[in-house]
């Protein structure tokens, strides 16, 4: 467990603000104790400082995971969020997309969201805005990036992609080996 | 009706020659099992004079092995454990898989909401029972339960009904520090976290790096955020961290309780496997006990569970721990289940083992399971470091020995029992001495140890009466350094128990509150290891007079 370098911290917060905007503050200033981001084998973990201290007893080789994993830095220093970050992204998300029940399964298999599968969408979302994807009964399913802005969505064809898939909860099964 | 009774009454013991030559069908075997059971139910009436009970039992075991495809060893163990009628029920129930059960993740949803959502997807389910608030039993499902959006969102976990029990027995409280020693795949661990409501710290450990991935995945899916997941060797955990409030040890075992899930257990496990398992379990349990903090305000508990039904892996292990550490058994808090054995064949365990619980497929419709809850009442270890190291070494050797025997066994030429015996008892020391059987050797050693303890007990007879009232608290104190070999140490003589118990209790008292110098001297007579004697004296000195007075008052009360 080590602190993130300044560069990596910047990348992380930029990425976070794409999805939850100014709510990033809420992740740092919490009423229930100090929470912090730490890096362990290129993976970013978000954890309470209290727990972090206890984890220092373990050797770096023996330690597998502390708190919640947000994502992983690639060799080229790009951060990719894992589906595990959804636990924190979903409650703070500013822009949301709801998919129809008929499209749920398709999304969970890793497909982009077509207009025909779109149930609802937050107003005023611009193109390439990071969004959290929900099912119609408000179950967070994953996150992605809008391919069209909200206004464009309204006039789009049923088959055009409105939201690019980035991550979905199906990955817990599909890519268990690579994620953890 | 008359026919069948007639047939049973004239059940004749098959001749040795004809039996080997003749091929018998499965139905005939089934009939014969029934016949022999009847004969054994009233042996005097139905027996044939020229055949003994053991012959009947051997034939029955042989038939049962064929009919249910067990190996001789495991069937023999089961026959020792159950009376015949119960045995048949157990074997039948073990063939059928248990119902699929799921646990609601109370961190993310409520059972009622989850049930409604799943019913919408075409799942037919019901609450599991009155004893749990999170379990659901699934009768049928149109969708794969391991891939519904609810599952992926972490609203439930697929796990057997029996695996809810140890966590309920553990009863973790909020803001505690809890360790799950063998956690993969994380079902019980996440259950602990959900009971703690994501407060405190949960340590999930597993020695297997491949299986630990499943723990990480499940914890993230179920929304457990207070966990530290590590991949340490469980036996070395005391070097990493101690001072836990509660520890769950779901020990690796032979899995004889889950034969419905994995039928290969029935035919592959042998004596050596069991031996290796219980040695590892003892080691893990001692480590777990060492890691718990007895002074914890809310906790100080260890829950030990296995999915095995063999007493070797359950009662024996607990009995061993009771002798080696300052722990006592407490009620598990589970209001059903069969009481653990206090006696099994020629072995006698500590009487408080009736507080542990066993679960069987035929009585509780869940996997065969064992749960024991221990409370640690003192952080001191009732033996010297040398003894402790010797114990460790013994266990280690037992484990490696077992492995070497396994390796030998793979060579079909060297499979004879005789050689196995030789491996355990190398020549040299025993050269030229009569070849005693194991039982005889055990008897001899037991007598030797008894003679020592008996002599000491006489010196202690007088002050005992005063402290009878405290008996309950210190019932399970165990201080006598066990010098018996690994095979003998759990075979306690019946008459040995109460006497030993009283005497040990006395010793524990004295360790805490040295009343007078005389007592200390007495004590030092009892304790054979010199280093301990020194420690006690130092302790004595450090106590002020005021403290001593207080102690005296306590004792009077």
Automatic annotation (TrEMBL), chain A:
This protein's assembly is summarised as: Interacts with pre-ribosome complex.
Gene name of the record: NIP7
Concerning its family, UniProt says: Belongs to the NIP7 family.
Q: Which GO terms describe its cellular component?
A: nucleolus
Spell out the molecular function terms from Gene Ontology. Answer: RNA binding
Question: Which residue ranges does the record assign to the PUA domain?
Answer: 95-174
Q: Which GO terms describe its biological process?
A: ribosome assembly
Keywords, ordered alphabetically: Nucleus, Ribosome biogenesis, RNA-binding
Can you say what this protein is called?
60S ribosome subunit biogenesis protein NIP7 homolog
Please name the InterPro entries in this protein's record: NIP7_N, Nip7_N_euk, PUA, PUA-like_sf, PUA_sf, Ribosomal_synth_fac_NIP7, UPF0113_PUA
**Subcellular location(s) per record:** Nucleus, Nucleolus
Q: Source taxonomy lineage?
A: Eukaryota, Metazoa, Ecdysozoa, Arthropoda, Hexapoda
* Function of the protein: Required for proper 34S pre-rRNA processing and 60S ribosome subunit assembly.
Automatic annotation (TrEMBL), chain B:
User: What superkingdom heads the lineage?
Assistant: Eukaryota
Q: Where is the signal peptide?
A: none
* SAM-dependent MTase RsmB/NOP-type domain boundaries: 90-377
What are its GO cellular component terms? Answer: nucleolus
Keyword RNA-binding carried by entry? yes
Q: Where is the active site?
A: 307
Q: Where in the cell is it found?
A: Nucleus, Nucleolus
Claim: RNA-binding is one of the keywords in the record? yes
Supply one GO molecular-function term. RNA binding
For the ligand (S-adenosyl-L-methionine), the binding residues are: 182-188, 206, 233, 250
Query: Which residue stretches belong to region Disordered?
Result: 413-433, 471-557
Basic and acidic residues bias located where? 413-425
Q: Where is the major localization of this protein?
A: nucleus
Instruction: Give UniProt keywords alphabetically.
Output: Methyltransferase, Nucleus, Ribosome biogenesis, RNA-binding, S-adenosyl-L-methionine, Transferase
GO BP annotations listed = maturation of LSU-rRNA; rRNA base methylation
Q: Which family does it belong to?
A: Belongs to the class I-like SAM-binding methyltransferase superfamily. RsmB/NOP family.
Quote the protein name from its UniProt record.
(Mediterranean fruit fly) hypothetical protein
Record organism: Ceratitis capitata
């Amino acid at each position: 467990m080590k602190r993130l370098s300044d560069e990596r911290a910047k990348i992380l917060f930029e990425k976070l603000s794409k999805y939850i905007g100014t709510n990033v503050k809420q992740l740092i200033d919490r009423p229930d104790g100090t929470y912090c981001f730490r890096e362990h084998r290129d993976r970013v973990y978000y954890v309470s400082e209290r727990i972090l201290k206890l984890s220092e007893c373990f050797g770096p080789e023996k330690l597998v995971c502390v708190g919640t994993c947000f994502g992983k830095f690639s060799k080229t220093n790009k951060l990719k969020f894992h589906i595990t970050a959804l636990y924190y992204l979903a409650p703070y998300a500013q822009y949301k997309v709801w998919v129809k029940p008929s499209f749920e399964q398709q999304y969970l298999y890793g497909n982009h969201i077509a207009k025909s599968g779109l149930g609802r969408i937050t107003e005023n979302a611009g193109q390439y805005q990071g969004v959290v994807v929900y099912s119609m009964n408000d179950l967070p399913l994953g996150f992605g990036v809008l391919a069209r802005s909200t206004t464009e969505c309204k006039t789009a064809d049923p088959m055009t992609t409105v939201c690019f898939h980035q991550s979905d909860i199906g990955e817990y099964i599909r890519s268990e080996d690579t994620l953890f | 009706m008359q026919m069948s009774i007639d047939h049973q009454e004239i059940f004749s013991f098959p001749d040795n020659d004809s039996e080997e030559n003749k091929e018998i069908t499965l139905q005939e075997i089934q009939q014969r099992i029934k016949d022999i059971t009847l004969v054994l139910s009233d042996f005097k009436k139905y027996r044939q004079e020229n055949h003994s009970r053991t012959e009947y039992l051997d034939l029955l075991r042989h038939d049962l092995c064929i009919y249910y495809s067990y190996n001789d060893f495991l069937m023999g163990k089961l026959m020792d454990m159950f009376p015949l009628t119960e045995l048949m029920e157990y074997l039948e129930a073990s063939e059928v898989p248990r119902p699929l059960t799921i646990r609601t993740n109370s961190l993310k949803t409520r059972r009622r909401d989850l049930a409604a959502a799943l019913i919408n997807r075409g799942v037919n389910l019901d609450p599991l029972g009155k004893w749990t608030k999170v379990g659901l039993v699934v009768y049928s499902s149109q969708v794969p339960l391991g891939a519904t959006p609810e599952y992926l969102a972490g609203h439930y976990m697929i796990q057997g009904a029996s695996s809810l029990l140890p966590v309920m027995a553990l009863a973790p409280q909020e803001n505690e520090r809890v360790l799950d020693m063998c956690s993969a795949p994380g079902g019980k661990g996440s259950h602990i976290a959900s009971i703690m409501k994501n407060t405190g710290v949960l340590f999930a450990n597993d020695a297997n790096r491949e299986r630990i991935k499943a723990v990480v995945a499940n914890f993230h899916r179920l929304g457990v955020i207070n966990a530290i997941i590590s991949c340490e060797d469980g036996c070395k955990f005391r070097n990493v961290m101690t001072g836990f409030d509660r520890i769950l040890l779901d020990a690796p075992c032979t899995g004889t309780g889950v034969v419905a899930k994995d039928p290969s257990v029935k035919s592959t496990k042998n004596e050596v496997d069991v031996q290796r398992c219980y040695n590892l379990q003892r080691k893990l349990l001692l480590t777990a006990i060492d890691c718990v903090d007895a002074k914890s305000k809310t906790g100080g508990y260890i829950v030990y569970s296995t999915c095995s039904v063999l007493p070797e892996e359950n009662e024996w292990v607990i009995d061993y721990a009771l002798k080696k550490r300052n722990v006592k058994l407490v009620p598990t808090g589970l209001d059903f289940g069969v009481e653990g054995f206090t006696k099994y064949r020629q072995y006698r365990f500590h009487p408080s083992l009736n507080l542990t619980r066993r679960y069987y497929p035929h009585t509780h419709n869940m996997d065969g399971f064992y749960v024991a809850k221990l409370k640690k009442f003192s952080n001191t270890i009732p033996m010297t470091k040398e003894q402790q190291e010797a114990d460790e070494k013994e266990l280690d050797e037992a484990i490696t020995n077992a492995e070497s025997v396994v390796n030998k066994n793979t060579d079909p030429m060297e499979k004879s029992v005789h050689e196995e015996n030789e491996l355990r008892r190398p020549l040299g020391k025993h050269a030229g001495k009569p070849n005693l059987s194991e039982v005889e050797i055990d008897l001899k050693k037991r007598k030797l140890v008894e003679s020592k303890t008996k002599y000491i007990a006489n010196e202690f007879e007088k002050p005992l009466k005063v402290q009878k009232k405290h008996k309950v608290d210190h019932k399970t104190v165990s201080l006598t350094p066990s010098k018996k070999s690994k095979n003998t140490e759990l075979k306690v003589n019946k008459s040995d128990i109460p006497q030993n118990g009283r005497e040990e209790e006395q010793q524990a008292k004295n360790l805490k509150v040295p009343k007078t110098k005389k007592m200390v001297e007495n004590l030092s007579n009892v304790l054979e290891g010199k280093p301990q004697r020194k420690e006690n004296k130092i302790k004595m000195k450090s106590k002020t007079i005021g403290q001593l007075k207080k102690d005296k008052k306590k004792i009077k009360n």
